[in-house]
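ASSEMBLY PREDICTION REQUEST
Request ID: AP-0331
Submitted by: J.K., bench scientist
Number of chains: two
Total residues: 540
Priority: normal
Notes: Please return the full assembly, not individual chains.
Input sequences:
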Amino acid sequence: MNYRNKSKRIGTKKYGSGRAFLCVVALLIAAMTVLSSCGGSEKAPAKSTASDISYEPISTDSADTASDTAEAVTTTPPAPVDDPADFPPLNSQSGTYYSDASGLLHIDDRVLEVCGYDEDTAANYASLVSKAADALAGSTNVYCLLIPTAYGIVVPDDIKPQLDNYYDQSANMNDVFSKMSANVIKANCFNHLMMHRDEYVYFRTDHHWTQLGAYYAYETFCQAKGVEPYTLDQRELSTFDGFYGTLAQDGQAPDTVFAYHPHSQTATMQFTDKNGTTLDWPIIMDVSDWAASSKYNTFAAGDNPMTVFTNPEVTDGSVGIIVKESYGNALLPLIVDHYATVYEIDYRYWQGNLISFANEVGAKDLIFANNMMMVSSILVGDLSTVIN
Amino acid sequence: MKKCLCIIQVLVIILGIFTFSACGKEKTIDAEAAFKALLNDVTYAKELTDVSANAPYWLSGMPDGAEIKMYRVAGGSYSDQLIMITAKSSNDVEAVKASVNAYLAGLKKQAELYKPEEIQKLEDAVIFDSGKNVFVCITEDTDTVNHIFEDQ
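STATUS: Completed
Returned structure:
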């Protein structure tokens, strides 16, 4: 064998294995690069569409902080006289219900919305009310008049056990109140409304309460405030038939709006609308000729950023502020009897600072009149913009 | 010949490395530039007000550490708004989008009751995510919104 050839063969073998090794290494590098790029890639900019996904609330410490630091500066309201044992029974005629595609409950001739409860959002609401109460302690009494919805009061007793996960609105209201500062005067009207649940306290075709329901909440407020309520007999009554509200269904019988006027017959109101226009308006508007869907607007001109009520029959110069969404409209004709001036603020449309405003006008009382659907909703965000 | 083949193999592999790595990396947008363009170049029903400090009251359920920029039309008559949420981690993006969807559902619910003329605008809301950022833009001027995201 030629030595050189042998050497060349040895050299050739060495070069051949080196190239193979290089190829293998390159392949490995390629494989690693491809795999790492695919696994950790950022998503390409994509446009997605909204879909229904459940969510969990964030929590805030402010409610706890308010509760820990606030001192009770007002007298405790008298103990409630409504005993749950005395609640009138309420049973359906049909013994059954159905839930439509929108999630509305249909029970006999009534349609109503399920009112869930989000504890963290409700805690945010409680923290905002507490913030106002703590800031105004010593100058303005801050009341919270939580308003139950139809779901909490008039779902029949025989239907409740049939519902999946029925939200106990009394427990939910107690939970919200428990998160509030001691400076908040809690006016809990749940039991008092339950005492009258077999009366016409909620519309059947609309998500609002009737003014009769509002009246029973007003009685609770008067109890908390320590004043005597004016009775229904002491008020003029206007009746508007043919009301089909927000939940009205084909074939459903219409509601009737019974509108009780203020006891103070010389009380007047002026509202500023969303365009900034200020108008004088009757506290109870004759809506006989209005559209069937609009008759709830008989109360205090509906929803406007600011409405001012003046009652010359109250001569002590007292000022009240009520912060509300649309449930509060039915309360105003009742509340105005107890103040010389009432400012009605719809926080969804009003732009201002509630605490500063209360100080500016020398408010004796600030009343948060908010329904239980609201305290678990995005409207708490709207409320946050007026409490700074 | 064998030498040439191996060199070709190596070149192919190197070419493959570059090709795959170019495809694997997704493009992310400049979030701050996009937000600035959305704020300044999109037409809204009225001027937007910075309400970022109040955002947690509207957007519950956000994962910890998420930063929110929120601009809305004040006064409640219009639904127009712009939101940019930067999650702490890309793993949180889905939770952010869930919170956003719940918020939009709440806006639609209110519009059904009180502002039916705003419902279509809410149906057409643009939700856009890139990297750790989720954008929400509610306006009639969705064409400009989409162009901004396409041009980033």
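REVIEWER COMMENTS: The CA atoms of residues 150 and 202 of chain A lie 6 Å apart.
SIGN-OFF: pending second reviewer
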